[in-house]
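PROTEIN–LIGAND DATA SHEET

This sheet pairs a single protein chain with one bound small molecule, zinc ion, given as SMILES. Inputs appear in the order they were entered. The predicted three-dimensional arrangement of chain and ligand is reported afterwards as a token string under its own label.
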Amino acid sequence: MRKLLIIKAVKQSLFKLFEEAERAWERGERERAVHYIKMLFDLVKKYRTRVPRPLKNRFCRKCFLLWNSETVKVVYDRKNHCFRVICRCGFKKRL
Ligand SMILES: [Zn+2]
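PREDICTION REPORTED AS:
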């Protein structure tokens, strides 16, 4: 029970951190945005939880860059019949 409560609180802070990251990005503070995403990911690892579904495809797991139309390319992979996002760092993810 106690653990569940903690996880709930952690999840809330994950969303908060993501919001902060987005705001920082809008202000043009890209490094700060990356910093927030890093903190978010550290929390995920620390509590051995998962990145909440709505946030899953919103940032890079490798370089912690916020994903938006500026930072990723979406390509259609004909071979595997799926879409892939390609991050600026070269990280590819199947959608
Ligand atoms: Zn990346």
